[in-house]
Amino acid sequence: MDDAVTHEQIIEQGNVMYRRPDALSDAWTHYCPGCTHGIIHRLIAEAIDELAIRDRTILVAPVGCSVLMYHYFDVDAVEAAHGRAPAMAAGLKRTQPDKIVFTYQGDGDLASIGAAEILHAANRGENITVFFVNNTVYGMTSGQMAPTTLPGQVTTSTPTGRDVALHGHPMRMAEIIAGLPGASYVVRRSVHDARTIRQTKKAVLTALQAQITGLGLSMVEILSSCPTNWHMAPADALAWVRDVMMPYYPLGDFKVLDAVKRVG
Length: 264
Fold this sequence. Notes:
Strand content: 15-25%
CATH architecture: 3-Layer(aba) Sandwich
Strand order of the largest sheet: 2-1-3-4-8-7-9
Order of helices and strands: HHEEHEHHEEEHHEHEHHEH
Distance between the termini: 48 Å
Number of domains: 1
CATH topology: Rossmann fold
Largest sheet: 7 strands, mixed
Number of helices: 11
Shape: globular
């Protein structure tokens, strides 16, 4: 059509309502309908663009639902063995201190098989950024109990609900990491509505700025929905994050050094 308006003309006219961040590649994701990984990806990509660090950013991808995320970001990326992302990120940052290195990990990856890696990375004060996505289950492998599964929560491996007397208590990773001396910025956020999405975006920016300033390990735990493994409609899953997850995993700042406040 000769009179069709081009993408470039729309941008020139200032009528843009949405634009894919440059740090995101032009690719379809594999995530289930209603999954909030896509929202979190976008927030990280927007922060990378706004800080103008795309050409020196390295993503360390995990094993889990986001195992293929190196296809979705237009930045340098590596794939870590299950749970080993903090160890790989620490090595990359130490050998290339001018790079901005971040990990993106789920609860099974970070809080279970990778618990030693994240604890020691935080204790050493590795100058990396960790985005920890907590959806209370092993999402990729059919929804088994994770270290963050809530008391009484039904999963494929706890069909009668998590019994804390048998399985132990859910792990509040933000609170644990905040207690280690090498952590500079540790917060918990969510993406279940517009307000929490905006708050999470600010936290993502602050976490990356803490690394740029060289303040030590920064971590943003993000409560995320998993409609498929929770057996819920997407809207119901978002409500479940608000009504069920947040009472056990309260949003908030658990450690913010004064130096971080000055750059955040």
